[in-house]
């Protein structure tokens, strides 16, 4: 969340859930603030949303709950994907409420009048929020007020994701600010490359991979096919791919479709096991004209980006669990990508002691998650309170990572004019990542680099 104040006009850029804080930490913060937010939501005039992911969009319903009455401006695909994600959070929240209100334990909780977290919202709150979304097109300048106009540029990373470039006119002067959002990478399956943005006076830049370069140099098709061959042909066994439902699953399914069309994919079943992923896939299919040239050409030739023989969409929870009874070689793609919640948890639990199975990690995993523990080679992991020996093969490829790496971030900032750019603000990254990237930028004649703390204020 970034709050930009221009006289009495207030713009909130992104409004995401904070995954750095656990429930206890959030509760303490909200009590201290007397709100979910460190500002008065009713005083915000407009929200500009870079993309749909929950760490950028997940608090929007709470903004309305606490008095915000303005609009949320984003691209059309971002509006569609954000709606899916917010309703998914609301459904999880509803189950949480219902679990606390039923059974003997629930009765005890009711007697204690247990309070629900301040940031818990339900479907009706999402409905109010999404009714106020205003879609905009890339590359077109929009006037937000008498003194502010915004232009959205493709950022890659996710369908509809944007860099937001703001022009502010005050006192006869023009000031420009660019918010990177999350930066994508070149030649990513389905997505357009990040677009260059105009020279700005101030740049707010993400740093997720500010100290790392992607390791894989092969194509996504070759990298994925090599794992499939080792796991499903040479053994033969089962391939479990934890993947986020919005973005990562679509890239995987499209690459599998390309392999199928080229007669490289062996005749094995592929199971996509995530209702949210199915809905997101339909959004990608609907907005295929906003994807890259290769994807658009594929759609014109094959009439589908994702569907191919042997691809099965799993809808019900019962069918998901029944996959454990399928003994032939297969590929299961299921959420979440970090193996923290979602159906993939039971797939991993059922196969973690199967030496014929491979768990393939295809993206970033936060410290402490099961995905992180597997990536770090832990021989035993805790599943439902029990230490379990890891006998399955664990592999990693990073060609499906949706974030640009150090080189991509470097090139993004170097598009700017060092003589015009007054300050670069580094955000959205671990401390060591920001520090390393700051040193890199200092070496490229960008001397004024800030790493804001939570709640820091700057006058531009």
From TrEMBL:
InterPro entries: Beta_Casp, MBL, Metallo-B-lactamas, RibonucZ/Hydroxyglut_hydro, RMMBL. Pfam families: Beta-Casp, Lactamase_B, RMMBL. SUPFAM superfamilies: Metallo-hydrolase/oxidoreductase. Residues 1-244 form the Metallo-beta-lactamase domain. The keyword Hydrolase applies. CDD domains: TTHA0252-CPSF-like_MBL-fold. Keywords: Hydrolase. Residues 249-374 form the Beta-Casp domain. It comes from the Bacteria. PANTHER family: CLEAVAGE AND POLYADENYLATION SPECIFICITY FACTOR FAMILY MEMBER (PTHR11203), INTEGRATOR COMPLEX SUBUNIT 11 (PTHR11203:SF37). This is MBL fold metallo-hydrolase.
